Automatic annotation (TrEMBL):
InterPro entries xref list: Flavodoxin_fold (IPR003680), Flavoprotein-like_sf (IPR029039), NAD(P)H_dehydrogenase_qn (IPR051545)
Gene3D superfamilies: 3.40.50.360
Signal peptide bounds: none
UniProt keyword Chloroplast, yes or no: no
Domain Flavodoxin-like fold: 1-208
GO annotations of cellular component type: cytosol
Record flagged with keyword Oxidoreductase: yes
Protein known as: Flavodoxin-like fold domain-containing protein
TM ranges: none
Pfam families: Flavodoxin_2
UniProt similarity note: Belongs to the NAD(P)H dehydrogenase (quinone) family.
Length: 225
């Protein structure tokens, strides 16, 4: 099985990065193939534009979705986008690692969605959710927060984490057709001690093994049918 790890944190020594490293080690130890898109380390450009394409149909008026559709048909995406699309295409399971900044993922991850999940490649008219082009793939978000679990509860300051993650989980991952597992959240990661962080890492490893076993069984069943 192929696992794509999509990582969006600028500091390799952060706890978010430690969770990413645990993902790579756990998946590889279980015999899976792992691709890592470390967006900050790759200096991924989050800004969409004409540079997304080897050429454009209309040099006067830039219609982004239309250019994406053309590039998908003609193989005219920039090398950076083509590389990420290839990783996405071969993935059976997508694991997203990111911190919550200002109630959302870092902008670099949103830019990856905008540029890589292009019209014609990741979706088309009439292909969404149950009919999404990536139906059969699985996905899970593993996130870190500065706020405590109480802060992300119903009626408290930030509201439920499910609401915060809705644009990523529902309007992106589920929209594409993937089966979205409930998120793993390392609450208040900068505020807890080393023992608590070690327990979080162990809990994440166990959770990931469950996801990968489930995904592996799905892949095996599909192969048999």
């Amino acid at each position: 099985m192929n696992v794509l790890v999509l990582h969006a944190h600028p500091e390799p020594r952060s706890f978010c990065s430690a969770l990413k490293d645990a993902t790579v080690e756990t998946a590889a130890a279980a015999g899976h193939t792992v691709d890592v898109s470390d967006l900050f380390a790759q200096d991924f450009d989050p800004v969409a534009g004409r540079h997304d394409f080897a050429s454009v149909a209309d040099p006067e008026v830039f219609r982004y979705q239309g250019e994406q559709a053309r590039a998908a048909e003609e193989g005219a995406f920039s090398p950076e986008i083509a590389r990420e699309q290839a990783r996405m295409a071969r993935a059976d399971c997508l694991v997203l690692h990111f911190p919550i900044w200002w109630g959302a993922p870092p902008a670099i991850l949103k830019g990856w969605f905008d540029r890589v999940l292009a019209f014609g490649f990741a979706y088309r008219d009439g292909t969404r959710f149950d009919t999404g082009l990536f139906k059969g793939k699985q996905s899970i978000c593993c996130v870190t927060t500065g706020g405590t679990i109480k802060r992300f509860s119903e009626g408290d300051a930030y509201g439920p984490i499910e609401t915060v993650l809705w644009p990523v989980e529902r309007l992106t991952l589920a929209y594409l057709g993937t089966t979205v597992h409930p998120p793993f959240v390392a609450y208040a990661a900068p505020r807890v001690d080393d023992a608590a962080r070690a327990a979080m890492l162990d809990a994440w490893r166990a959770r990931l093994r469950e996801v990968l076993i489930t995904d592996g069984r799905r892949a095996e069943t599909a192969h048999r049918t």
